[in-house]
Structure formats: C-alpha cells, structure tokens
C-alpha cells in the first residue's frame, strides 16, 4: 500500500510541476487552485508512505517520478525540445527509480 501511495504522490508532483506553468505566476485562479491542491496531496501522501518506507528511498522515488513525468509532459504538452540525449537521461532516471524499488 505504501508504494501505491508513493506512486500517487509522485503523480501529484507531476501535476503541480506542470500546473505551475499554467498558473502564470499564480495569476490564474483555477490553475493555481489545482496546483496548490496537487502540492498538498503530494506532500501528504509522501509523508504517509514514509511511515513504512525508508526516507531516502521514498524521497528519491517521489522526485524521480516527478522529474520523469514532468520532463515527458514538458516535451509532449509544452513543446520542450526532444532529443536522444534528453530521452536517454530520462531513461537513466527511470532506471534509478526502478532500481530503488527493486532493491528495497
């Protein structure tokens, strides 16, 4: 259950990271509200997951999910550059996250 909560927390982190772009500096009401809700849920779920998972592993997996998801959505939704080196780096992060889960 803790790993599921951690995964959801990571997805919420993607939500607020991408959401920040749409808030336009917190000048847009509804994107700002959604972003803030995602921030709170992300941290709360991370905290709950950390009750039974190691802190270092939890934090690294949480940020890894957020980093990979935000980078991919940046390329897909926000028109950020797509290149072989960028994709390779994202895959390396994904391998690190999988390794932390596997070796826990």
TrEMBL record:
One of its GO terms (biological process) is xenobiotic detoxification by transmembrane export across the plasma membrane. One of its GO terms (cellular component) is plasma membrane. GO terms for molecular function: transmembrane transporter activity. It is found in: Cell membrane. The chain crosses the membrane at residues 29-48, 60-78, 84-103. Keywords: Cell membrane, Membrane, Transmembrane, Transmembrane helix, Transport. Its main location: membrane. It is a multi-pass membrane protein. Belongs to the drug/metabolite transporter (DMT) superfamily. Small multidrug resistance (SMR) (TC 2.A.7.1) family. Gdx/SugE subfamily. This is Guanidinium exporter. It comes from Noviherbaspirillum saxi. The gene is sugE.
